[in-house]
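Two proteins, back to back. First:
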Amino acid sequence: MKNALLSCILTISSILIANMAIYAMRRRKVPGAFAFSLLLFAISFHSLGYAFELLSDTVDKMYFGVRFEYIGISFYPVIIAVFARQYADERRILTKSITSLLITISIATLIFVNTNTYHLLYYKSLGIDSTFGFNVLKLEKGIWYYVQSAALIFSNIYGVAAFAAKSKKSRGDYRKRALFMLTGCSIPVVVFVIYILGMGPAYIDIMTFAYMPMSLLIGVGMFRYEILFLTPVTHEMVFNSIDEAVIVADKNGRLISCNDSAKSIFPSMKRIGIGESLYLIEELCEYDFESDLDGYEIEGKIYSLKVIEMKGGRGRIYVANDITESEMAKKQLKKMAITDALTGIYNRRHFMEKLENEKTEGAFAIIDIDHFKNINDTFGHVEGDKVLVGFANKLKNSFSNDLVCRYGGEEFALFMDIYDLEMAFKRIEEFRKNIAEDKSGINFTFSAGVAKYRRKNLSECIVEADRRLYEAKGNGRNRVVY
C-alpha cells in the first residue's frame, strides 16, 4: 500500500513537471528556455520510471524502471549546467571542453546502465529489499556510478553558485526572483548529498521526491515573477559586440540588463545594480525615458536615443546610437550651403534670402576692393586670397550685428538696420579709413556704394548701390558714395 501511495505521488509529480516542460518548450526561442524544458522532461522521466519501479515485484521489472529513469538521469549533469549557464549568463567556468566532457559522461552513463549485465560497471549487483514493507531494488554501486555522481555534484554546485552570483548582482524584485531559482535548485543538491552519504532510507531514491518542491519554486519564479521569460539573457559575445548602447528595463523602468557599450557611454551604470531605477543613470537625468530623442549630447558627443517596446508591454529596450559624425557632417553641409568657401562669411544666395525674409528696411551697400587685379598680378593669387580673407574678417568684426557676405570676386555686400543713410555712410567711411591706414600687410583700399533698402525694392536697391559704387570708382576710388 505504501509503495502504491508513493508511486501515485510520483506519477502526479511527473505529469505536472511534464506540463511545465511543454510550457517552457513553447518558449524555446528565449535563451535558457530550451535547456530548462529538457531538464523538466528529464525529471519527468526519472519520476515516472521510479513510480513504475516501486510497483514492480521482480528484479527484472524493477530494472526496466531503472532503465526508463536513466533516460532522464543520465543527462542531468549537462542539462543542469547548461541551464544555469544560460540563465545566469556565466561563461568563464563552463567552457566548451567541460560541456563536451559532461555530454560524453551522460551518453556513457545511458549506455552503461542499459548494458550493465555485461560489465557491471554501473551496478555490481541487483537484489530486492523488503525492509519498508514493500519490495525495493537493492543496488550495489559500481565505479561508473561514482563518475556520474561526481559529474552531477559538479553541475549542481555550479548551478547553485551561478544562481547565487545572479542573486547577489540583482536588486529588489529581481533578487527575490533569483532567490526562488536558487532555493529551488538547492533542494536537489541537499537531498543528493544526503542520499550519497547514506543518511536517508536505504535503497529508496529520495531524489525523486525533491523535484516536486524544486519545480514549484522555479515555477513561482517563472510564472509569478516571469523570471526566465522577462530576463533577456543574451549571448555575451553578440550582446557586447554591439557598438550601440543597449539598455533593457522592465515595465516599471528598472534595469534588467545592459551591454558594455552602455557602461562606456554612461559610466554611472557601472554603479547601478539589476532591478534599480534607470533614473539613477546620471548622464540621462534630463532624458524622458518615455520617448525617442535625437541630438542628446553627452560629453561632446551626440546620440540618438530610441525606445523599443517589448511585446505585451513587459518592458522596454533603449538603444543609444552615436550620431556625432553624421550630425557634424550635416552641420558642415549646412555651413557649406550658406557660407563662402574661401572667406567663411555668408555667400550671396543666403545673404539675399535672409535680406528678403528677415529685413524690411535699412541701408544696403556694395563694397569693392580697389585694383584687386593688381594685387593678384603683383603678389600672386595666394596672397590675393589672403587679402580677401583678411578683409572679410575685418568687415564681419566691424559690423558684427549686421549682415555681410561675399558678393562675388572682390566684391562684398553689407546690410545695416539703419534707416538714415548718412549714419550708414559714417560707419562705412570710418571702416574705409581704417582699411586704408592699415600697414600690417598688403596695403589696399576699397570703394562702396550705399542705397536705401525696402523689402519690395530689392532689385532697385541693388541697381542703385551698384551705380553709386561705380560713381565712387569714377571719382578716384577709395571713397563711399550714398
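And the second protein:
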Amino acid sequence: MTEQHDQRYCIKFSHKLGDTQVETIRKIQQAFGDDAMSNSRIKEWYNRFKDGRTSVDNEPRSGRPSTSRNENVIEQVRTLVMEDSRITVRELVNEIGVSTGSVHSILTEDLGMRSVSAKFVPKLLTMERKQRRLEIAQDMLDNADSNPNFLNTMITGDDSWVYGQQVIVLPHPPYSPDLAPRDFLIFHRFKAKLPGRRFQSSEVVNVTRDVVREFPPYMFQQCFLQLYQRWQTCIAANGNYFEGRCGSV
C-alpha cells in the first residue's frame, strides 16, 4: 500500500465519522506533515466518498496508454509526485493513463527529478540544499563523535507523535531520503516484500507487523551505524546525492 492510499483511507474514515472538509484537511496535514496531499486533492477524494464511492483505488483505464506530454499531463504528474514522493512509475501510468515512457520523460526531463531511496526528489540539488545537507551531516557526526551514546539514543520516524513528549527533534535536510533510515533502509524492504499488493485498512497493521518480524535483529542494531557512514559519505560528496556509494545493512 502506498502512502497515497493511506491518506485516501484516512479521508474516507474522516467522512464516515462526520468530519467536514476543513477538519479532514487539518487531520491529514497533522498526520502526514510535509507528505500530506494538497488541499484540492483532499477535497476531491472527500467529495468522491461523499457521493458514495467506496474504493480508494484508481479507476481502471481501458485502451492503450497515451504517449501525450502536454502541460496538463505534466501538471498531473507533478501534483501526484508532490502528494506522494514514493509513488511508483507504474502507479503514475495507471493514475493518469499515459505510457511508461512518457512518465519517465516527464519525471526526468520536464520535472528534473530522480529516484533516491525509493522517493522522487529533484535531480539536481541547489547550492543552498547541498550546504544544508553538509551542515547537518557534519553536526550529526560531531555529536556522535563527542557522545558515545548519541547513536544509541536516537529514534527515527514521522515526528507527529513526539509533539508534547519532550523529545528533542534533530534537524533533517529537505529532499534527503538518502539520510533518513525510514527511507533508505526500511521502506524499500517493505516494497520488496509486498510488490504490487493492496490491503484493506484493517489488514495494514497485521501485515506491517508480520513484515517487521521478518527483519533480522542485526538490521536494526546496525541501522544508525549505517546512518553515521552516510553522514560521512554526504560530506565526502560535498552535499550531493550519493546513492550507490554506501554499503547496505
